[in-house]
Amino acid sequence: MAYIGTPAVDRFTASKAASVYSGDGSTTAFTLEHSVGADEDILVSVDGVIQEPSVAYAVSSGTTLTFTAAPSTNSGNNIFVYYLFSTLGTVTHPATSALSATSGTFSGTLAVTGASTLTGTVTANGDMVLGGTTPTLTIGDAGAEDAKIVFDGNAQDYHIGLDDSADTLVIGKGSALGTTTAMSFDANGIITKPLQPAFMATVGSDSNNFAKNTNVTIPFATEIFDQNADYNNSNYTFTAPVTGRYQINVILRLGSVDDASAYYYLELNTSNRSYFNIFDPDFGQDAVFWVMNTSILADMDAGDTAKALVLQENSGQVQTDIQAASFFSGHLVC
Hints:
By secondary structure, this protein is mostly beta strands. The protein has three domains: about 20-85, no CATH class; about 105-190, no CATH class; about 200-330, Jelly Rolls (Sandwich), CATH 2.60.120. Helix content is about 0%, strand content about 45%.
């Protein structure tokens, strides 16, 4: 197969040992007769004094020698440049030919303007720029395998990727796909948040004859679900894990409501404020049952709590029950 690429340079090259120049007191830039790769590849003498590389002079573009201060005027040759090393040629990849590699590391900006296929590991320490009229980054090759992007953080990694077996797009914590998933998008566009704070609890069984003239915490002791483990079924309290807006709901079913009582009220108590539902049971007779409810979008700070209480005020008998068909629920909205 014919060689593809820049023609190889001649292995045997006759190069000058030195170049000489004359200073005029103002010119600082001189053109070298051979290309060099670094300031240290030449030895420079001005008026018999050896010059320090990168301090007294610098080489740019391979052939431009620039002095920090213009060499003194001399009608004869007073600048001597001795070539210690010289650049014979460079090898570049032809723009019209495909480049194949198993891995690559780019410390600068990687600019992609045409179609490129990356099948190995690519590490970009700089920016990655997609150019063209309709720039598209495709991850995967239509095969039956998972694909992901990992964000390598200092203290915590995150990932976004395709769970091919479930046909879902997932976002989660860590570098392993499918672990600690925070958000999942299925093929129908349905979004679930497996770690989003959400709970529901019920009384479970009737709590008979609760005390009157006392704020009684409603014993929502039976958890139906507790996503993210923020509800305590021992003290019947929900604790906000993060600051946000929480939708909190209480359905309270009372039994044997005494019409002689001044009033009953349901309180949703949160750290920031309380919300109430109140009614006067003067029905002319006791009610076999009565349902009270409250629903509110509450502002809660991280560590704030929410619980539900009921009060039977003043006169009347201690006869009212908190029935099992009572529910306490909530979730983080935003």
